[in-house]
Amino acid sequence: MIQSINSDNTIIKTENLFKQYGYGTNSITVLKNISISINKGEIVSVMGPSGAGKSTLLHIIGCLDTFQGGSVQILHQDISPFSYDELSGFRNKHIGFIFQMHNLMPEFTALENAMMPLLIKRQSYTKAKQKAFKLLEHFGVADRANHRPSELSGGECQRIAVARALITEPDIILADEPTGNLDRKNSDILIELLLKNCVEEGSTVVIVTHDQYIASKTQRVITLIDGTIQTDVNN
Ligand SMILES: Nc1ncnc2c1ncn2[C@@H]1O[C@H](COP(=O)(O)OP(=O)(O)O)[C@@H](O)[C@H]1O
Ligand SMILES: [Mg+2]
Q1: Which ligand is nearest to the CA of 57?
Q2: Domain range summary for the chain, segments of one domain joined by +
Q3: Domain boundaries 2-234, CATH class
Q4: Residue 220 pLDDT > 60
Q5: Is 26 touching ligand 1 by the criterion CB < 6 Å?
């Protein structure tokens, strides 16, 4: 009984996930039968040395990359048979991705950048603007709303990129070293505000990080080494 309740709550599930790049003697195995299960609303960090396969795992969960073996279920859907278009449709609907580089569009203002995902989804301009402004307020950058990225600091740009990732209220937020380019102070502000928003919204979050302090703020820490799970512990 308890097991069936738990499995209903599972939002990300990989079983014996296997991934290699290249073919034959030139191939490199990056993920070696990874089995993880993450529940709705869980806030998880993934740590491990460079080259361990952290980004690859996040990209597969985020429907940005494919795999050769095992299975991946996101929101109870087996994504392995999905075509490229189906993967990108599923990703746009359910997943918000935050990268180390903010990738804001330089010709648009902070507000326009944050609004963009809703405009792409053909939501009304007024509603998109209101929602984007609210998020910029949450992230303490509302006073920068009408500035372009070149006029903003790295910390401000990253907070706007996070607002952009959250604006569609995705079920799952995936962040790949989101504070990798930030100093301690900006890193702490970003993570605090990101986690506050995700807890309020009940979103599921997976953050890849090298930062022990960030990991300590999450509920669960998975450590990957050489394509295998070394440890998986609750904080
Ligand atoms: N597109 C690719 N082609 C070939 N090898 C790759 C590719 N992407 C990543 N790799 C290799 O896969 C391994 C894991 O990479 P990655 O997932 O980026 O690790 P991490 O994020 O933990 O640093 C590394 O050895 C890397 O060189
Ligand atoms: Mg990486």
Answers
A1: 1
A2: 2-234
A3: alpha beta
A4: yes
A5: no
